[in-house]
Amino acid sequence: ANFAEVLGRPEFLQSIANSFVVSAAAALVSVALAFLLSYTINCTNVPPLLKRAIGLLAQLPMLLPTITYGFAIIYTFGRTGLLTRLLGFQLFDIYDFNGLLLGYVIYTLPTAFLLVDNSLRFIDKRFMIVSRVMGDSPLQTFVSTVLRPLAGALCVAFVQSFFLAFTDYGIPTSVGGQYDVVALELYNQMLGALPDFNKGAVIAVVMLIPSVASIILMAVLERFAI
């Protein structure tokens, strides 16, 4: 009866769809940024001091609880935030998809960066030289010596980032607004003003499905990762 009641609510199904959309978007952005930062550190002539600074800044968000990201977004991009006051107008509404996307990217970027950077360190950079000597174009060299060996690690980073964003409730609690996600539904049912542990248990079981799928997918992708 509890399963029928929860799964029969259109609002709950919409929150699941919202979670998939915003988590996938955040994971895609995080992996792209992680790759750019890792490539800068491992494959460019940027000064060593700057490389070290990039690596430290990319990992810094890991030291903070996720709800802190939400408050940082409010105090920076909110209607009375620092950046809004400096510009004289608000760049975007933070209490919807945009705020969640920004918070999730900040939250998942350190994990994606560590996974991609660790793999990129083990790629033999001499293949790039050989590829250029053999007459490959810069794009062919980039694809064959960097992207192709790193494909497994990029996929693992995407899955891990997606799962972290999908299950987090700290960021939706602060900037979610009317954009409901399934983790916030679980939080409201278990720790809200009127806790309902029966419905909360149903939501928790539903959230186990993508968790199990992520674990299986990670096990498959690890065979292709460096």
Can you put this structure into words, describing what you see?
The chain is mainly alpha-helical. Helix content is 77%, strand content 0%. It has eleven helices and no strands. Helix 2 packs parallel to helix 6. The chain is globular, with a radius of gyration of 20 Å. The model has no long low-confidence stretch (mean pLDDT 86).
Annotation keywords:
226 residues; 11 helices
List the helices and strands and how they pair.
Blueprint: H1 2-7, H2 10-43, H3 48-59, H4 66-77, H5 82-87, H6 97-121, H7 126-133, H8 138-167, H9 170-175, H10 182-191, H11 197-221
Helix pairs in contact: 2-3, 2-6, 2-8, 4-6, 6-8, 7-8, 8-11, 10-11
Please give a quick description of this structure.
This protein has 226 residues and is an all-alpha fold.
Largest sheet: none
Give me the number of helical elements: 11
Q: What is the mean pLDDT?
A: 86
Separation of termini? Answer: 47 Å
Strand content: under 5%
Shape: globular
Unreliable parts: none
**Overall number of strands:** 0
Compressed to H and E, one letter per element, the order equals: HHHHHHHHHHH
Radius of gyration: 20 Å
Structural class: mainly alpha
Percent range of helical residues: over 70%
